[in-house]
Amino acid sequence: MPDTIKIRDLDITLKVNLPNWKGEIAEYEATWMRNILGEIFEMGFGITTWLVYIKDSVITPLSCTMYFSEEESKALKLGKMLNITCREIMEEIYKRRANEFYARQK
Q1: Which of 7, 28, 63, 74 has the fewest CB atoms within 10 Å of its CB?
Q2: What CA–CA distance (Å, rounded) separates 39 from 36?
Q3: Residues 81-97: pLDDT tens digits?
């Protein structure tokens, strides 16, 4: 698993506009981040985490990592039955999401 960077340890404040549970855009402060693939990172914002794309100092939210499609949920359940850690499966789900994002960019 990639190393997690605590944003506060860098002595910076990083704020991102994200949709809240009501679908309204709200500003959240990032507390940690870790690289998933290329310019895509998982970032923690208090009680939620998101995959974000960072390019030219612009942070673009891609997807909330706390919600899974039906297919992703099935993979998590199957992994649990096979004694694969959820973290390993989630890592693969995030990498697949990142690859799908890059494929759409081409």
Answers
A1: 74
A2: 8
A3: 898 888 889 999 999 99
